[in-house]
Write a structure and sequence with these properties.
The structure is a homodimer of 228-residue chains. Chain A is mainly alpha-helical and 228 residues long. In chain A, 73% of the residues lie in helices and 0% in strands. Chain A has 10 helices and no strands. The two termini of chain A are 29 Å apart. Chain B binds a DNA duplex (30 and 30 nucleotides) through helix 1 and helix 3.
Chain lengths: 228, 228
DNA sequence: ATGTGGATTTGAACATGTTCAACTTTCAGC
DNA sequence: GCTGAAAGTTGAACATGTTCAAATCCACAT
């Protein structure tokens, strides 16, 4: 059985080297084309060593996901500290997602599928990836709370999670996007982020009050009740 | 290279037998636990023969998908021919999806992930599975057009595809549902189908005119422009 | 310095999806 | 009924993710 964290300096070095080689190879050759043997070979360790630190190839994907999240968070930090307009913050954040992930576009399909697999421990809805998902959701909470928009409390409560889900949808679209410079995705982002902000303000209309309560109640119920 | 369709009577028999064994084993043991060797063994043919008719294990999933679609279509035929109320038609149709798929609940996660993989030829957005997707979308077109609801043309045009997408979301939720009798999913279906019908009627409000046009325009643009 | 116990490393072995070249069966045309 | 080409069948071989028992390394107490 693989361990979770290295206990010695040598172990730390090995783990980091294996992870590095894996991230490089994923980018160079894609997920499927990167074999566990090639990772071990590039690292300069034996095949078995990789499994000492990462229980499976899938678990390397989790680190990959964490890595891009860190890049993304760093990329948007200046925007979030300067900009106050919600639509601008949201557009910049989502644009940064696809810009950050651009080097991994070729791998993204396999990664996405791996992560979306409900049977996988990496699934963000319940496996070991939940902490990382929570971190990303928190990022969207910051996008909202750092803006000057006045969001009703019931919406504000569920909005970060919804924005995370929305981001996943954008990523899925982006994976299929073959347009030059991925312009198509950027157009869709600009239009949808603007629409989202518009819909949030429309949600305060009295005619929509009933549906809004029902929708938010449903979401809350789904999120808060255990299992599924 | 595998062939697409048997040319002899013997070939037809073999193909059908292999498919049968595969569907049975998927149900009995799940997708991963069903090996190509076990399929061949149960069928009474050699390993290589399976690959003569199905280029990969994934392609067997496509047939599995087709199979459940046929069960589903048959299950809702009476409802669609008798009922006129849109909400009732929609609720019955979506409920029938999860009821039909219930025997395959344990396999569904792997199946879903396989189908959702953008790199897979089975992906409904562009691979060989597109014809089958179109068939399912058509089913939702029937659900809508056979009702007595008056749907504005711009909405009616995109609604079937949106309902197909919605159905996928419900299936994903259902995969995670561990509640007894999958009651949780049924509750969510009842609430969401009702909400959908309500939102469709709200969409005709003058205040929402602008956003509605933008949303439908965006969807149409995404669907009709080639690639992504 | 030496022994010890845990951490780390190793590589052979295994399971399984996939490929392929050789072999066998089928059947349409004579 | 014969024949040859097309269709179907076979099983060995390969690639790759994963497991595991044995070997090695290393920090530390004695």
């Amino acid at each position: 059985m693989a361990i979770e964290v290295p206990k010695t300096r040598r172990g730390e070095t090995s783990r980091a080297a294996i992870l590095n080689a894996a991230l490089d190879l994923f980018q160079e050759r894609g997920y499927e084309a990167t074999t566990m043997r090639s990772i071990a070979e590039r690292t300069g360790v034996s095949l078995g060593s990789s499994y000492h630190y990462f229980p499976s190839k899938e678990h390397l994907v989790l680190e990959f996901y964490r890595h891009t999240h860190e890049l993304h968070a760093a990329a948007i930090a200046p925007l979030l500290s300067r900009e106050k307009d919600l639509a601008t913050r949201l557009r910049g954040t989502i644009r940064a997602v696809v810009v950050t992930c651009e080097p991994f576009h070729a791998v993204a399909g396999s990664i996405f599928s791996t992560v979306a697999n409900p049977a996988s421990p990496l699934n963000p809805f319940g496996g070991i990836a939940k902490p990382l998902r929570d971190e990303v959701v928190q990022l969207y909470a910051d996008v909202v709370s750092g803006s000057d928009a006045r969001i009703p409390a019931d919406i504000a409560e569920m909005l970060p999670l919804m924005l995370w889900l929305y981001q996943m949808g954008i990523l899925y679209f982006w994976i299929f996007d073959r347009s030059p410079g991925r312009l198509r995705t950027l157009e869709v982002i600009d239009e949808t982020t603007d629409l989202i902000v518009r819909l949030i303000s429309l949600a305060s209309l009295p005619v929509l009050r009933g549906s809004r309560k029902r929708i938010l109640g449903l979401i809350k119920d789904i999120v808060e009740r255990p299992q599924g």
